[in-house]
Amino acid sequence: MHTTHELSLRTYGPSHGSHAHDHFQVLIGLDGVLEIEVEGRGAGIAAGEAQVVAPGDRHDFEARGEGSVCLVLDTTHAPWARCAERAPADVPQLHALARYLAHCMKQPLHAALALQHGPALLLEAWGPVPSPLPDTRRRRGIDWPSLAAWARARWHEPLTVSDLAEVACLSPSQFAQRCREEQGVSAMQWLRGLRLSHARELRMDGMGVAETARRTGYRSPSALTAALRRRGA
Questions:
Q1: Per-residue pLDDT tens digits for 41-71
Q2: Would you say the CATH fold of 144-230 matches that of 5-126?
Q3: Are the C-beta atoms of residues 181 and 142 closer than 8 Å to each other?
Q4: Regions in the chain scoring below 70 on pLDDT
Q5: Ordered DSSP codes for 16-58
Q6: Backbone angles phi, psi at 6, to 5 degrees
Q7: Nearest residue to 230 (alpha-carbon basis) of 27, 39, 55, 79
Q8: Within 13 Å and on the Cβ side, how many CA atoms surround 195?
Q9: What percent of the chain has pLDDT over 90?
Q10: pTM greater than the 0.70 cutoff
């Protein structure tokens, strides 16, 4: 899969409602305070603070008063998964880099090299993953192809992260973390992507929309059509 990056400066105001992306969204506060809610968890991003929204996580933004300005990186680069659940290791360094990149974006012709390497520099500035405590236990492997086959046979059921974790012999939190690390997306995003891929295969084989929706567990043909359209299928 080709990795894409897009840096932008965005000004936020009143909320436009919750939504989700198929990519990571990295937000670094430059001015004002951005109130953000991700999968029901609220936080504020002030100047110098940052947050990573993982693919598939529903989120909503709102900035009151004069609004909020953030440097935003939209990226499909999987290593950002390790940053989604932790704060930057060096906040002043990350903030300084974000302000520099924001300045570069105002004169892109003279700062092309900085903007080209900006996404990698931001990831590096976030800091290394903290070293875990020594653990002599062997880490349980996840047979992702077998798990995918198990899920594909059960689209008629309302599958949850707990269901997937039970099949993988892990706790829900362990499975969710492993999915982010190994697949680069949340567990539910992985499941939704698997369901949509199966639906796309059936449609390409000539199956009708209604029958495809029934076989892959979509609540209606229109729901399937909307999902395919969002993915550009």
A1: 888 899 889 999 988 888 899 998 888 999 9
A2: no
A3: no
A4: 1-2, 129-139, 231-233
A5: ---B--SSEEEEEEEES-EEEEETTEEEEE-TT-EEEEPTT--
A6: -145, 120
A7: 55
A8: 24
A9: 23
A10: no
Q: Which two tokens stand for residue 184?
A: 């680069």
60 contacts: CB under 8 Å, gap ≥ 6: 15, 17, 18, 19, 36, 37
Alpha-carbon gap, residue 133 to 177, rounded angstroms: 17
5-44 pLDDT per residue, tens: 899 999 999 888 888 888 899 999 999 999 998 877 888 8
Q: Which CATH superfamily, name and number, covers 5-126?
A: Jelly Rolls (2.60.120.10)
Q: What are the residues whose beta carbons fall under 8 Å from the beta carbon of 143, sequence distance 6 or more?
A: none
Domain extents in the chain: 5-126, 144-230
Q: Buried b / exposed e across 160-194, counting CB within 10 Å, b at 16+?
A: ebebbbebbebeeeebbbbbbeebbbbbbbbbbbb
Please count the CA atoms within 13 angstroms of the CA of 79 that sit on its side-chain side.
13
- The class level of CATH for 144-230 reads mainly alpha
Listed in sequence order, the DSSP H helices in the chain are: 91-105, 112-126, 144-152, 161-167, 172-183, 187-204, 209-216, 221-230
